[in-house]
Amino acid sequence: MVLLRSLSRACFGAVLLGTTLAALPGAGAAPLSAPQLQALQSALNGSDPAALRALLAPGPGLEPGELQARWLQIREQFPDARWALTTAAPLRSGQSTVSLRVTGTRVQGAASYRLTADQLLSLNSDGNRINGQTVLREQSILRSGDSDLPVSLLIPDAVLTGQRYDIDVIFDDPLDGAITAGGIVALTPQQVAAMESPSLELAALGGGGLFKTVQAPLSPGSQTWAVLLVHPKGVVSATKRVRVVADKAALKL
Predict the structure, then answer these.
(1) 133 beta partners
(2) Contact of 209 with 151, CB cutoff 8 Å
(3) Closest to 56 measured CA to CA, from 128, 130, 127, 124
(4) Which is nearest to 171 in space by CA: 227, 229, 115?
(5) What's the CATH architecture for 2-251?
(6) What is the largest CA-CA distance in the chain?
(7) Are 236 and 205 in contact (CB under 8 A)?
(8) pTM of the entire structure?
(9) 89 φ/ψ angles, rounded to the nearest 5 degrees
(10) How far apart, in whole angstroms, are the C-alpha atoms of residue 22 and residue 224?
(11) What are the domain boundaries of the chain?
(12) Rounded CA gap, 205 and 184, in Å?
């Protein structure tokens, strides 16, 4: 049980930069320049909170104090955490995007944990500082054990309001008689913002993974799911944010 709690605290709700799914920026919003993107990566990988705050200004989806607190929390949980930012493909609207990946490891007692987390972001600038962001995609996976247990997280990036959709988390390798357990829970916005561990009940898995059908909210926004899988070779916990949109055209970025 201690192992499961440790995994939960480290991964459930572990968003990388921001927690707010803001509206997509308007035509007047400026994308980040290459030097700004490099400066942001350097600040995230540095150790001076003031260097990070100097690059940020309050704006849609971005509160510098909250971002700094979450950055410090991730660094505390994963002392060797590294952030990598790269320019990604623009949206259909032409808005530029940034791909962000965080990797890190942590040792607690006899257990070791390995984190890989990804976001697709739209970041805005006032010309000097970053003053807005929209989280377009987000997923994190944390593994324990001697090797990375391969799993597939089959959860859609976006669904329509009120839509029923499948959440499938599958062990990629045959179980070969291994006894496994798992559970899934929806995180509240408060749990996501505070990176809190949810209460999650585990049940024995009769197949090669976890399979569940859920329903999207009736209003646009997002849902964040937390998954925990237990296997003799290790434990996998994951989070995935699902955009909830009212228009079919918004399903694709």
Answers:
(1) 123
(2) yes
(3) 130
(4) 229
(5) Single Sheet (2.20)
(6) 58
(7) no
(8) 0.86
(9) -65, 140
(10) 15
(11) 2-251
(12) 12
Q: What is the pLDDT along the chain (253 residues), one digit of tens a residue?
A: 334 444 444 444 343 555 444 444 444 457 788 899 999 999 999 999 999 999 999 998 889 998 888 899 889 889 999 999 999 999 988 889 999 999 999 888 888 889 999 999 999 998 889 999 888 999 999 998 877 889 999 999 999 999 999 999 999 988 888 889 999 989 887 777 777 667 778 888 877 889 999 999 999 999 999 999 999 988 898 999 999 999 999 999 8
The answer to whether residues 32 and 130 touch, using CB atoms and an 8 Å cutoff, is: yes
Per-position DSSP letters for the chain, written without gaps between them: -HHHHHHHHHHTT--SS----PPPP-TTPEEPPHHHHHHHHHHHHSS-HHHHHTTB--BTTB-HHHHHHHHHHHHHH-TT-EEEEEEEPPPTTS--EEEEEEEEEEEETTEEEEEEEEEEEEEEESSSSEEEEEEEEEEEEEEESSS---EEEE--SEEETT-EEEEEEEESS--TT---EEEEEEEPHHHHHHTPPPP---EE-SSSEEEEEEE--SSSEEEEEEEEEEETTEEEEEEEEEEEESSGGGG--
Q: Is the dihedral angle over the CA atoms 60, 64, 70, 74 positive or is it negative? A: positive
Tokens describing residue 251: 């399903």
Residue whose structure tokens are 């993974």: 209
CB contact set of 103 (below 8 Å; sequence gap of 6+): 81, 82, 84, 114, 115, 116, 117
Name residue 198's beta-bridge partners: none
What is the Cα–Cα distance from 152 to 148, expressed in whole angstroms? 12
Triad 89, 119, 68: Cα angle to 5°: 125
Tracing tokens 């972001």 back to the chain, one arrives at: 121
